[in-house]
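Predict structure. Chain length: 262.
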Amino acid sequence: MVAIGDRRQHPGCGGKIIGMQIPISGSIWRAGVVPRVAGRVAALLLALALVPLAAFAGCDDAPGPGVDWNSCEKYRLLLRKADLRGAKLGAADLNGSDLESANLAGADLSRASVDRVRLSNAELGGARLVQLSAYRTNFTKARFLKADLTKAELSRSNFTDADLTGANLTKAELPRAVLQGAVLLGANLTGADLSRTNLANTKLAGAKLAQARMFRTRVDGVDLSLALGLVQGQIDTACGDAKTVLPKGLKAPATWPCAKED
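Prediction complete.
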């Protein structure tokens, strides 16, 4: 017979043990089956007791540096100039919100949704934006110094005059996005989809464009001479003009300049 106790309160608070007798064969006990199971259960309960409360998102917490809104529904918020440095916003729904001039430096927005959000003039340096969904989002003059936008979905978003120096845009989806006048010095656009993207007057020195899809990508007036990884096939499908400067060994196709599109 083995007594198994169920403690209802913490022992320091005068808790009592309510027990019950369970018949256990000697062979099973000697084999160590019961002690092993009991030990594992005790270890699991201890681990659960040690889980910090901070591990759970506080969706009702006020906005501020380091706030944890992971997986929270926060759409259509008015957060102009909000200080959200280091905020945890993974998989959060921020669709339709106003975050103009907000400080999101070092924030984690991985798999978050910011469709049709106003993020113009926002600070996103060092932010983690992996697989971010940002359809028709306004990033005008936003700063993305060394931000990680790997596999981000940025279709039709506006990055006019944005600073993406050193940003990681590997395999990012940017069809019909506007990056006119943006700074992309040293940015990584390897494998990115730039179909019909407007790159007119951007700065691309040191930018990696290997395997980037450039079907009808606007490179009017762009100096591509120091861009890395470009091949003739990409240039042949892109759209430039007489002011476009190409890397050594590549030449402008006879189709330039392309007809304007709506």
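Summary: The CA atoms of residues 91 and 114 lie 10 Å apart.
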